[in-house]
Amino acid sequence: MGKNKIIITIISVVIIVLAIYLFTLQDEVVIEDPSFESAIREIINKANGKITKQDLKKVTELDLGGKGIESIAGIEAMVSLKVLDLSKNNISDISMLSNLKGLTYLNLWSNQIVDIRALAQLENLEVLHLDDNQIKNISPLAALNKLEELYLWVNRLEKIAPIVNLPKLRILNISNNPIEDIGSLAKTEGLARLIARRNGIIDTSFLSALQELTYLDLGNNFIENIASIAELQKIKTLRLQRNQITDISPIIHLDNLIELELSSNPIENIVLLNSLDSLKLLEIRRTGLVEVDFLEAMTRLSYLDLRYNLISDTFALAKLIELKELYLTGNQINKIEGLKELKTLEKVDLTDNLIKDISPLAGLKKINTLKLAKNIIVDIGVMQGLNDLEVLNLANNQVSEIGLLLDLPKLTQVDLRFNPVYQRKNNKQVIEKLEGKGVVVYR
To answer: What values do phi and psi take at 432, rounded to 5?
Structure first.
């Protein structure tokens, strides 16, 4: 009888041990990709031993961007995940994501993804990044009724119809896709931010239905007619660079507009912009501008970019007393008197002009970046009091006296190339002293 009890006890122990072993086997999660496994071990703080479902179930947020991961097999066990970043990897198969139904944020930017059917199961997603992949069919996204932000730039999309009925969609980026017709977006009436650069778009009539838009970027398309934009009364940022727009009259009554980009368009009536006196940012590069008197009323501007035009003077800028950044590269400017009273300027780029006299800059004490390359400047004495100056570019001028640079306390970088600086013997010592102070000198 005693022997039987012992045998029964042994058998019971064996059964229990075997059950525990089998449970452990069942609970173990096999992760194939070594980069993925290494990252997971670091996150769960488990350098050795088996990775179990219990280990992974605790994780609610996971950032694995740029880890060189090719396979995410095993991630299906991370059922508590709400935030997942897998950007900048080499992932092609995302089928195992279908089990992560609690996800609200998913970033798959810059991978090798073609098939996104697994995403149809992720009904709690609010933000989804699929940028820079090889996706053509986005029909699985039609079921994501909680989606608020969707990023699809740089893919192979030809149609966007599957996403136009998403009820909560507020932000959409479909740039760099072979899409010519995005008219179906008229149904996405709640859209607040639309970015559709480099898509081959011609027709913009659909815009009149998007009354909630506050940000619109249609740069680098083939747009000529922007009449529908006149109805976008909530618009704050409008970017229409590199199109075929000649008539900008639909813009002039957009009272809430604060940022406008119109570069590289054959605009015929640029003076109409003088009514936009609430603008804070204006970019009009490469449009053949000669006269800029229309800017005089834009006294709230803090950022102005007029690079590569035909402007010869700066007098029209004299009233822009809130200006912080000014870019005038590649014009024909020979006088900068108009900048004299712009006391708030912090960044100024006057590269590639015809400037000799820079004395109007003397009182601009807040400048921290000053680019004056490719001019005909000889005397830089006016910089003596520019004590906030950090970056200075004087390349391709006629400057020979540079001793005053030693008195600029915040200077970190100066470009002196293609100047006759070595005509003065002491300049070698000046440069050595600058470098001794940690200033990067290009010579």
So the answer is: -60, -40
